[in-house]
């Protein structure tokens, strides 16, 4: 029995004897099946290969990024936020004892929270390694490919994990799509961590919103307007997305401007 990992998205399955024929995550139109065909590996095989390394890098006081090289799966960045609780925001696939030891030496983890299914990765392995719960919005329960008693399915639009760490379900990319508000980040001015529910674009003063990024399927204007309305109630100066892109200043303004531009473009009124 093996916990198979899809090499395209990096998400792990429940234990089965034979490699699955399809990946539930990649078969959805928001992701894609590799043109070369479906392929699988295991975390044990990745560790044994000696090819991978996950690096923990300070970003600002009490915020660290976690990146695997060479790139595996989607290639997302996870973040460790050392707020009132030590929270792993989103997840990456590659985990070995070196990473476990490094994080434990810095204080360990108290919880894991996910923005959406594309970054579930080996979340259960991480939760078991650190003995912590996983927070996933109930609307995305159907996308969990490896069930675990450590998963807490929360509901509603807001969940306070700690006094300075608040999950907000804003929808869009997935029904349960969630962002993390870290109120004490950026020396108290606030940081929003968004996965790619809100994606920082090439010009860092702007962001965008999509139903599918690889297949370039936009979200409806009404959905983006609702997302922007919810985000307008939050206070944050910086925004970190899942691909290590950062809006360094006035991120709340960037989100508002970008939502207006997006809605205008879809409505045919953008010059």
Give a description of the structure:
Keywords: Hydrolase. This is Putative hydrolase. With 271 residues, this protein is of the alpha+beta class. It has a single domain (2-266), classed as Metallo-beta-lactamase, Chain A (4-Layer Sandwich), CATH 3.60.15.10. It is 20% helix and 29% strand. It has six helices and 20 strands. It has helices at 43-49, 97-105, 123-130, 185-188, 221-231, 251-266, and strands at 2-6, 12-16, 40-41, 53-60, 63-69, 78-82, 86-89, 111-113, 134-137, 151-154, 158-162, 165-169, 178-182, 191-193, 199-200, 207-208, 210-212, 217-218, 238-240, 246-247. A seven-stranded mixed beta sheet has the order 4-5-6-7-8-9-10, with helices on one face. A six-stranded mixed beta sheet has the order 11-12-13-14-19-20, covered by helices on one side. Helix 5 packs antiparallel against helix 6. The termini are far apart. The mean pLDDT is 97.
Structural class: alpha+beta
Give the strand order, joined by hyphens, for the main sheet.
4-5-6-7-8-9-10
Strand content: 25-35%
CATH topology: Metallo-beta-lactamase, Chain A
Please give the share of residues in helix: 10-25%
C-alpha-based Rg, rounded: 18 Å
Oligomeric composition of the shown chains: single chain
* Number of DSSP-assigned strands: 20
CATH homologous superfamily - what is it?
Answer: Ribonuclease Z/Hydroxyacylglutathione hydrolase-like
Q: Supply the number of structural domains.
A: 1
């Amino acid at each position: 029995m093996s916990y198979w990992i899809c090499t395209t998205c990096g998400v792990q399955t429940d234990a089965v004897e034979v490699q699955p024929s399809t990946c539930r995550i990649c078969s959805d139109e928001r992701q894609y099946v590799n043109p070369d065909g479906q392929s699988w590996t295991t975390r044990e095989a990745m560790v044994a290969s000696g090819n991978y390394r996950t690096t923990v890098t300070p970003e600002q006081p009490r915020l660290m990024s976690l990146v695997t090289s060479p790139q595996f799966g989607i290639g997302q960045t996870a973040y460790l936020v050392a707020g009132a609780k030590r929270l792993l925001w989103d997840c990456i696939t590659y985990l070995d004892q070196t990473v476990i030891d490094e994080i434990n030496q810095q204080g360990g983890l108290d919880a894991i929270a996910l923005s959406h299914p594309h970054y579930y990765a080996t979340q259960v392995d991480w939760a078991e390694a650190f003995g912590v719960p996983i927070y996933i919005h109930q609307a995305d329960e159907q996308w969990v490919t490896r069930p675990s008693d450590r998963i807490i399915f929360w509901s509603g639009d807001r969940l306070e994990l700690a006094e300075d760490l608040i999950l907000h379900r804003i929808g869009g990319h997935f029904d349960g799509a969630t962002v993390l508000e870290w109120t004490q980040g950026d020396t108290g001015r606030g940081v929003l961590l968004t996965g790619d529910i809100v994606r920082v674009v090439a010009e860092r003063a702007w962001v965008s919103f999509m139903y599918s990024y690889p297949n370039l399927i936009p979200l409806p204007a009404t959905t983006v307007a609702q997302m922007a309305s919810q985000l307008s109630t939050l206070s944050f100066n910086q925004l970190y997305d899942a691909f290590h892109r950062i809006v360094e200043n006035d991120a709340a303004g960037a989100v508002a401007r970008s939502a207006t531009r997006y809605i205008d473009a879809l409505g045919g009124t953008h010059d």
